[in-house]
Amino acid sequence: MAVSSLRAKDNKRGRLLTPETAPRPETPAETAAPVIRARDLSLTFQTGDGPVHALKDVTLDIAKGDFVSFIGPSGCGKTTFLRVLADLEQPTAGSVTVNGVTPEQARRARAYGYVFQAAGLYPWRTIGGNIRLPLEIMGISRAEQASRVARVLEMVELDGFERKYPWQLSGGMQQRASIARALAFDADILLMDEPFGALDEIVRDHLNEQLLALWARTGKTIAFVTHSIPEAVYLSTRIVVMSPRPGRISDVIESPLPRERPLDIRDTPEFIEIAHRVREGLRAGHEDV
Ligand SMILES: Nc1ncnc2c1ncn2[C@@H]1O[C@H](COP(=O)(O)OP(=O)(O)OP(=O)(O)O)[C@@H](O)[C@H]1O
Questions:
Q1: CA of 29 relative to ligand 1 center, distance in Å
Q2: Is 74 in the pocket of ligand 1 (CB under 6 A)?
Q3: Which residues lie within the region annotated Disordered (predicted)?
Q4: ipTM surpassing 0.90
Q5: Could you give the 3-state DSSP secondary structure of residue 35?
């Protein structure tokens, strides 16, 4: 609660800010080192058809408690950036730190949970069993596993579904179970790669609301990939617009919206103005190609 009220006050600026015009941080939490820090990060894949410049000179800081969305056309490097943070890809140039250490050290310290595009639950395991699996691998005691499973299922409003199998749940519920699995690590950082892309709009709206509530309750730092402009604007404190070939950042938009966001905030002039700026950024990126 303290975190959300602090940020709501902080967001009463009521204007769009670029990284250049943004005021200096005011609170101790915000003056702390960034949770994610990328400097001139580039990644080129060598393929049979020649080099693919998935990321080029990406420089970005993500502060503790930020909700940062990455939006851009297919192939602009959004997933690659998340995969670099998660130590699943190695950059070819530049540097990146997660919680002040290398991605490899952050992975070993289990500094983040990762939610993929597809829920990716094992069909032969119950929902509880799916959430428990990484905890079993980590060697966490059975009692601790049980309490974490119960806690994260409650967080995503799936209490009572522990003994169900994935096929007994709707797509939206499966995606929530996959978020619960990522939350079970108890990490401060959540990396989410288009988690709601395959869901219909009403379900997506509902999950967006739930995710915001969860973020407000936990104060986690979230990096979120999406193709949807309304989703990016609704969820984020900052929106990173990317363009392809090579994948780079074309705009970073600081949201003036308060942290408490009912769904109908999407009809307000402030919301529409940010959505417009994101759209313009995406258009400009397309023209460059
Ligand atoms: N392992 C790989 N080997 C070769 N090229 C790759 C590899 N992974 C990604 N790429 C290429 O790197 C570029 C960036 O891919 P990436 O998946 O990060 O884009 P994206 O913005 O997440 O796309 P989408 O929105 O479609 O998921 C693309 O051109 C892709 O084909």
A1: 34
A2: yes
A3: 1-31
A4: yes
A5: coil
Give, using CA atoms, the residue closest to atom 28 of ligand 1.
75
Structure pTM?
0.84
CB 78 less than 6 A from any atom of ligand 1: yes
Domain residue extents for the chain = 2-111+188-288, 117-186
Q: Cβ(52) to ligand 1 under 6 A?
A: yes
- At 287 the pLDDT is 63
Query: What's the per-residue H, E or C state across 160-223?
Result: CCCCCCHHHCCHHHHHHHHHHHHHCCCCCEEEEECCCCCCCHHHHHHHHHHHHHHHHHHCCEEE
- Confirm or reject: Cβ of 91 under 6 Å from ligand 1: no
Distance CA 202, CA 204 (A): 5
Tokens at 130, concatenated:
């799916």
Give the class (CATH, top level) of 2-111+188-288: alpha beta
88 lines ligand 1 (CB under 6 A): no
